[in-house]
Amino acid sequence: MAKTKAAPVRTCPVAAFQKMISGKYKLRIVWDLKDGPRRYGEIRSGLLRGASGSAEITPRVLSRELKALTESGLIDRKDFGEVPPKVEYRLTRKGKSFVPVVAAIREWGERHLGEAAALADAAE
To answer: Could you tell me which InterPro entries the record lists for this protein (predicted)?
Structure first.
């Protein structure tokens, strides 16, 4: 009896995408890096500026998000090997191709979520 090869397991692209970008800060990190390389502190400051209800991002959480984005191939980490340490993060080609997707999400949010906030304010 001949062995048959198992068919390759297909992953739903939407589920795979959702898994890749899941996390509280990943989309915002990609959006922040669209303008060029940033150091850890610059990324952290950018996230704090837009934070609602959160005055602090723990270093552990930010490091985890940066590592996950690096592993997914969206960003690249460049260590300059200096003392004090200097590390920069930048979008890869794959990450740059993702910026229009984040821009579309942002535009949708401005149109539809701004509307909901205005309606809620008017109802009060």
So the answer is: HTH_HxlR (IPR002577), WH-like_DNA-bd_sf (IPR036388), WH_DNA-bd_sf (IPR036390)
